[in-house]
Design a protein that fits this description.
The complex is a heterodimer of chains A (384) and B (383).
Chain A: E1 4-5, H1 16-22, H2 38-58, E2 65-68, H3 71-85, E3 92-96, H4 101-112, E4 116-120, H5 130-136, E5 141-145, H6 159-168, E6 172-176, H7 188-191, E7 195-199, E8 210-214, H8 229-232, H9 240-255, H10 257-278, E9 282-284, E10 295-300, H11 305-314, E11 317-318, H12 334-338, H13 343-347, E12 349-353, H14 360-380
Parallel strand pairs in A: 1-11, 3-4, 3-5, 5-6, 6-7
Antiparallel strand pairs in A: 2-8, 7-8, 9-10, 10-12
Chain B: E1 3-4, H1 15-26, H2 37-57, E2 64-67, H3 70-84, E3 91-95, H4 100-111, E4 115-119, H5 129-135, E5 140-144, H6 158-168, E6 171-175, E7 194-198, E8 209-213, H7 239-254, H8 256-277, E9 281-284, E10 295-300, H9 305-314, E11 317-318, H10 334-338, H11 343-347, E12 349-353, H12 360-382
Parallel strand pairs in B: 1-11, 3-4, 3-5, 5-6, 6-7
Antiparallel strand pairs in B: 2-8, 7-8, 9-10, 10-12
The chains are: A alpha/beta (384), B alpha/beta (383).
Binding site for pyridoxal 5'-phosphate (chain A): 71-72, 151, 179, 199-201, 237
Modified residues (N6-(pyridoxal phosphate)lysine) (chain A): 202
Family (chain A): Belongs to the class-V pyridoxal-phosphate-dependent aminotransferase family. NifS/IscS subfamily.
Chain lengths: 384, 383
């Protein structure tokens, strides 16, 4: 049985072309980029080429791109790095209730260290209200961190407007764009963000590598210290094949971004409309149009999300009940609670995230299988 | 002919490792946290890799926390323990010849209210256990000493230091990045509480490493988020990297004795060749047979290390002047200074680091070329 993979927000398969680009750097060009001889210099060159590709895809300058081990590290670095660099200026950070845990848990840590954090609420669609941000900024505010697009419900935040508000008060703006990169056109110069996190394995690149965009002049401390790699800002021998893979993945995904977005949007809307048509007591989570092109998130009443996932898995469909990071926990999704769901309804949610390799047949298959499973589960449901 | 003698900087990934990684990259792309089959398969691979890495140093598989490499492991160990034990004390003991990922973190901790004793080493680069003992005070919360020095190959007495630390109830961290797979590292026998490891030094991939934690250790994360790695290190696991690290660890463990004998044989051959063929050379660090089997550091009087490095490169021989991490820094190696080198001995140092793919022919070729190049450069200099 061919499995249908609809969990592309958790991770994506590596594109063959990305893999091809990476392979030489495991064997032939295995040198340490810090080494002075040609072996090392070839690896160094590969890193710089990858940096240019990432920069180009984001509209950044290449010396504003810093490679990390992934989205979580980038988020941690942005928050802790700016907090400590600006602690003499203020101790207040603004974020939202629906951020990824890499941001939320770093904020909780910073609270223990004496920082104050405001968690902005969101509306029923998961949108942050610009006027809420405006009101929350004080003269102690040093950083605003708001995600570009939510990983669970796919809502795309009004980043450009939010950045303007932060900048009117001279406050740095960081955005976790892990889910948005490769799914939404992004130009850091136009958006004017100060810091932006991204990850390779969400865009058909390898796991274990990501980047942080740091606008020139932004004050930030290092998170990982040691050797002088990444212009003295991120120590550790560079993950050369991973970095090459990230560069390649960024180039590939931005090259055909329009057609990628169109394809995913078509499949997404077909899936959403099909589900809402065929299954009673179902509601779409997130915004109908301001959402990631591949994201479908639906709550079913009288359903336990986890049994739904397991049943879909048995039918050969890989799905998720929320974000992968929290799928092991029994807590209902903090995002669904933030958009006003009861705990019961939050537990009955299903996330299907479409990727570039999915086909219309995949969607048809889900629309055939899912209603049957829901019907069966509801007939034996213990939740009243 | 190409001779790669910079295996302490990084190593070529073994074919067995790449094969297994490719399987993960091509087929097993799941996120281990996902509840569906793809996730479950990834989780199984993760568990297997954890067991494989454990075999390299003993201890319990649950103690392995995967990181992005040796540098992150060292950062996590030091900052993590310092923050979690700061109410108990603020004193840390280390040495003057540690890797920059230890020294720079210690400097950072000093700026944040911690006190650090940097133990001096002897001419062979050895930390003396009695110095550790006398440096301990009632504020000491952590001792961090490397198992093998990355520049001169000194094997530190971590077993003895482990015993002292355990007696005093102080946590002992060992940076074993250069030691793993070459000399014995055994968390039980040597009483180690924390061990840093890196995959790319043992023919695994770059971008992955681990920090081993014994059950007693309480640590504050430096990367927060989804709670992976028992909440100690968040972030989606670098699956191909971790799996590759596992395979590399198992292979390194299985061939430990054979490899260390082979490397020691090559190292002796290299030193015998150099010392008999070339005048005015100086062995830096421990006696050949006392040091780690893969690292030989030699100064060629009157020849600048960097010049010799490039001269060797012309003939396809790749060596380094010190560690790769600090290769661009000026002012000479902190390790060589710590063992008392000065002047042209300090500037004329070359590190040869051997690996499993090196042969006797590599060594003989290297000696031959070295002799020619050193002679030439010395003549050139005198003119």
């Amino acid at each position: 049985m061919d499995r249908i993979y609809l969990d592309n927000a958790a991770t994506t398969p590596v594109d063959k072309r990305v893999l091809e680009a990476m392979l030489p750097y495991y064997s032939d060009v295995f040198g340490n980029p810090s080494s002075l001889y040609s072996y090392g210099q070839e690896a160094k060159k590969a890193i710089e080429e990858a940096r240019e590709k990432v920069a180009k895809a984001l509209g950044a300058d290449s010396d504003e791109i810093y490679f990390t081990s992934g989205g979580s590290e980038s988020d941690n670095w942005a928050l802790k790095g700016v907090a400590y660099a600006l602690k003499d200026k203020g101790n207040h950070i603004i974020t939202t209730e629906i951020e990824h845990h890499a941001v939320l848990n770093t904020c909780r840590y910073l609270e223990k260290e004496g920082f104050k954090v405001t968690y902005l609420p969101v509306d029923e669609y998961g949108l942050v209200k610009p006027e809420d941000l405006k009101k929350a900024i004080t003269d102690k505010t040093i950083l605003v961190s708001i995600m570009f697009a939510n990983n669970e419900i796919g809502t795309i935040e009004p980043i450009e407007e939010l950045v303007k508000i932060a900048h009117e008060k001279n406050v740095y703006f960081h955005t976790d764009a892990v889910q948005a990169v490769g799914n939404v056109p992004i130009d850091v110069k136009k958006l004017d963000v100060d810091l932006l996190s991204l990850s390779a394995h969400k865009i058909y690149g390898p796991k274990g590598v990501g980047a942080l965009y740091i606008k020139k002049g932004v004050k930030i401390h290092s998170l990982i210290q040691g050797g002088t790699q990444e212009r003295n800002r991120r120590a550790g021998t560079e993950n050369v094949p991973g970095i090459v893979g990230l560069g390649e993945a960024m180039e590939l995904i931005t090259k055909n971004l329009d057609s990628h977005i169109n394809k995913l949007t078509f499949l997404r809307d077909k899936l959403i409309n099909g589900i809402l048509e065929k299954i009673p007591y179902a509601r779409l989570n997130g915004h109908p149009t301001k959402r990631l092109p591949g994201n479908v998130n639906v709550s079913f009443e009288f359903i336990d999300g986890e049994s739904l996932i397991l049943n879909l898995d048995m039918a050969g469909i890989c799905a998720s009940s929320g974000s992968a990071c929290t799928s092991g926990s029994l807590e209902p999704s903090h995002v669904l609670l933030a958009i006003g769901h009861s705990k019961e309804l939050a537990r009955g949610s299903l996330r299907l995230t479409i990727g570039k390799d999915n086909t219309e047949e995949d969607i048809d298959k889900v629309l055939e299988v899912l209603p049957q499973i829901i019907k069966r589960l509801r007939s034996i449901s213990q939740i009243v | 002919m190409e001779v790669y003698l910079d295996n302490s900087a990084t190593t070529k990934v073994r074919k067995e490792v790449i094969d297994k990684m490719l399987e993960v990259l091509e087929e097993e792309y799941g996120n281990p946290s996902s509840l569906h089959r793809k996730g479950y398969q990834a989780e199984k691979l993760l568990k297997e890799a954890r067991e494989n890495v454990t075999c390299l140093i003993g201890g319990r598989p649950e103690g392995i926390i995967f990181t992005s490499g040796g540098t992150e492991s060292n950062n996590l160990a030091l900052i993590g323990v310092a923050e979690s034990l700061k109410k108990k004390g603020n004193h840390i003991i280390s040495s003057t010849i540690e890797h920059p990922s230890i020294l720079n973190v210690l400097k950072f901790l000093e700026e944040n209210g911690f006190e650090v004793t940097y133990l001096e080493v002897d001419k062979k680069g050895r930390v003396h256990p009695e110095d550790v003992k006398s440096a301990i005070n009632d504020k000491t919360i952590l001792i961090s000493i490397m198992a093998v020095n990355n520049e001169i190959g000194t094997i530190e007495p971590i077993g003895e230091i482990g015993t002292i630390a355990r007696e005093k109830g102080i946590l002992f961290h060992v940076d074993a990045v250069q030691a793993a797979g070459k000399v014995e590292v055994d968390v039980k026998k040597q009483k180690l509480d924390m061990v840093s490891l890196s995959a790319h030094k043992i023919h695994g991939p770059k971008g992955v490493g681990a920090l081993y934690l014994s059950e007693e250790v309480r640590i504050r994360p430096i990367i927060f988020g989804g709670g992976q790695e028992k909440n100690i290190r968040s972030g989606t696991e670098n699956m191909p990297g971790i799996v590759g690290f596992g395979v590399a660890s198992r292979l390194a463990k299985e061939s430990l004795e054979e490899v260390s004998q082979k490397l020691m044989g090559l190292k002796k051959r290299l030193w015998e060749g150099i010392s008999s063929e070339i005048k005015d050379v100086h062995l830096n660090g421990p006696e050949v047979e006392e040091g780690a089997p893969h690292i030989l550091n030699v100064s060629f009087r009157g020849v600048r290390g960097e010049v010799l490095l490039h001269a060797l490169e012309e003939e396809g021989i790749y060596v380094s002047t010190g560690s790769a991490c600090s290769s661009k820094k000026r002012g000479g190696s902190h390790v060589l200074k710590a063992i008392g080198l000065k002047g042209d001995l300090l500037e004329g140092a070359i590190r040869f680091s051997l690996g499993i793919f090196n042969t006797e022919e590599d060594i003989d070729y290297t000696v031959d070329i070295l002799k020619k190049k050193v002679d030439f450069l010395r003549r050139f200099k005198r003119r």
